[in-house]
């Protein structure tokens, strides 16, 4: 077996797809410390700079002092504390839903919720956008369901599949991200809501990269376009901490508590994590100024890259892809940026489709216009 593992790694290296862990530390002002250097950070998902916010760190420490280091059990045994239920209620109020549930991570939530939902009906068909996150793919693979992927953001293709593949099943589920993690573009939620209503489908929306940044009060795009039956998101990106949530009706919450293995068999999130969640939910609705600044920075980056001749795909968010094509070019541009003191790390297949390797520029409200111009100046001096 070890020989096969070595050969597999050799094949990954031959394709310029080898990855390795490197130590980094978030710093103030949109910077990180890495290999003893301070770098301008364009690769973290800390979109509002909350990961080092004093209120999050202090509240996390206070929760740990009051409730201890761990929760002791899964939520169904003895792991649900009063703090868990308070955070659940605050998430529901933030998202404008009847109820909510805290879960361990976004990956775990998608991988566990989707197969649980598929079990509810004798036959289920899932219709997912082709560019959804790996965790959704994992959930679809685990589901006892027919799974169909529609062309990215193509409502007509989705309707075709719903009509041809969804008519003979007992239940239908439509799955999308609201803000796509690698392209930075946005789902057409009004169109998806209309199709879900027309075909009697449950709409499931992943708001991991929209939560905190987009929508009314930073509550995500579903806050502006209600209709999804189930919305999940994370606290590990714009909300600065760790963990995930699912916001839904009381009916769906009761079902997940009884049928979702990711919730049933995982230890409940620990007190310090809940403290950071609580603080983030207090801060985020007050940060319209930071969201407006971030939107301006993102547009400045898109305009600059397009002026240099680069494709930024359909980006309309704080995620701006700088597409270069090959894995080798993405690695070379990443090194070029690093030499200039910029952490813009390459994203390669299988994370993105073959031929679309890129630098995924993740902007943050703690950056300045001068920081964006520094990146653009550096990119302008690079040649494939």
UniProtKB/TrEMBL annotation:
<dbReference type="InterPro" id="IPR015424">
    <property type="entry name" value="PyrdxlP-dep_Trfase"/>
</dbReference>
<dbReference type="GO" id="GO:0030170">
    <property type="term" value="F:pyridoxal phosphate binding"/>
</dbReference>
<protein>
    <recommendedName>
        <fullName>8-amino-7-oxononanoate synthase</fullName>
        <ecNumber>2.3.1.47</ecNumber>
    </recommendedName>
</protein>
<dbReference type="GO" id="GO:0008710">
    <property type="term" value="F:8-amino-7-oxononanoate synthase activity"/>
</dbReference>
<dbReference type="InterPro" id="IPR050087">
    <property type="entry name" value="AON_synthase_class-II"/>
</dbReference>
<keyword id="KW-0808">Transferase</keyword>
<dbReference type="GO" id="GO:0009102">
    <property type="term" value="P:biotin biosynthetic process"/>
</dbReference>
<dbReference type="Pfam" id="PF00155">
    <property type="entry name" value="Aminotran_1_2"/>
</dbReference>
<dbReference type="InterPro" id="IPR015422">
    <property type="entry name" value="PyrdxlP-dep_Trfase_small"/>
</dbReference>
<keyword id="KW-0093">Biotin biosynthesis</keyword>
<feature type="domain" description="Aminotransferase class I/classII large">
    <location>
        <begin position="38"/>
        <end position="377"/>
    </location>
</feature>
<dbReference type="InterPro" id="IPR004839">
    <property type="entry name" value="Aminotransferase_I/II_large"/>
</dbReference>
<dbReference type="InterPro" id="IPR015421">
    <property type="entry name" value="PyrdxlP-dep_Trfase_major"/>
</dbReference>
<dbReference type="InterPro" id="IPR001917">
    <property type="entry name" value="Aminotrans_II_pyridoxalP_BS"/>
</dbReference>
<comment type="similarity">
    <text>Belongs to the class-II pyridoxal-phosphate-dependent aminotransferase family. BioF subfamily.</text>
</comment>
<keyword id="KW-0663">Pyridoxal phosphate</keyword>
<comment type="subunit">
    <text>Homodimer.</text>
</comment>
<comment type="pathway">
    <text>Cofactor biosynthesis; biotin biosynthesis.</text>
</comment>
């Amino acid at each position: 077996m070890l020989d096969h593992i070595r050969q597999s790694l050799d094949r990954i290296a031959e394709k310029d797809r080898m990855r390795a862990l490197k130590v980094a530390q978030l710093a103030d002002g949109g910077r990180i410390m890495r290999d003893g250097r301070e770098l301008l950070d364009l690769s973290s998902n800390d979109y509002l700079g909350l990961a080092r916010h004093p209120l999050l760190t202090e509240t996390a420490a206070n929760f740990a002092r009051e409730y201890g280091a761990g929760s002791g059990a899964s939520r169904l045994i003895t792991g649900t504390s009063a703090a868990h239920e308070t955070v659940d209620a605050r998430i529901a109020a933030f998202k404008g839903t009847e109820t909510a549930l805290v879960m361990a991570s976004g990956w775990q939530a998608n991988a566990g919720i989707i197969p649980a939902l598929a079990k509810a009906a004798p036959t289920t068909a899932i219709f997912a956008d082709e560019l959804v996150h790996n965790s959704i793919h994992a959930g679809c693979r685990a589901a006892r369901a027919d799974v169909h992927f529609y062309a990215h953001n193509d409502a007509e293709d989705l309707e075709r599949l719903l009509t041809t593949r969804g008519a003979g099943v007992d239940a239908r589920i439509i799955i999308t991200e609201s803000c796509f993690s690698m392209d930075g573009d946005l789902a057409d939620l009004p169109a998806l809501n209309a199709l879900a209503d027309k075909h009697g489908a449950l709409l499931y929306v992943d708001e991991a990269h929209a939560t905190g940044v987009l929508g009314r009060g930073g509550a995500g795009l579903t806050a502006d376009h209600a209709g999804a039956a189930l919305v999940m998101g994370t606290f590990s990106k714009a909300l600065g901490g760790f963990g995930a949530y699912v916001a839904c009706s009381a009916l769906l919450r009761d079902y997940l508590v009884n049928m979702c293995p990711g919730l049933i068999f995982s230890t409940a999130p620990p007190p310090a994590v809940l403290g950071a969640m609580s603080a983030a939910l207090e801060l985020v609705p007050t940060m319209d100024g930071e969201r407006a600044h971030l939107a301006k920075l993102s547009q400045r980056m898109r305009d600059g890259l397009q002026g240099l001749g680069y494709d930024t795909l359909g980006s309309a968010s704080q995620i701006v892809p700088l597409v270069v094509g090959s894995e080798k070019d993405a690695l070379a541009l990443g090194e070029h940026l690093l030499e200039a003191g910029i952490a813009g790390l390459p994203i390669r297949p299988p994370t993105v489709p073959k031929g679309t390797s890129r630098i995924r520029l993740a902007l943050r409200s703690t950056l300045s216009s001068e920081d964006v111009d520094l990146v653009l100046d550096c990119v302008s001096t690079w040649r494939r």
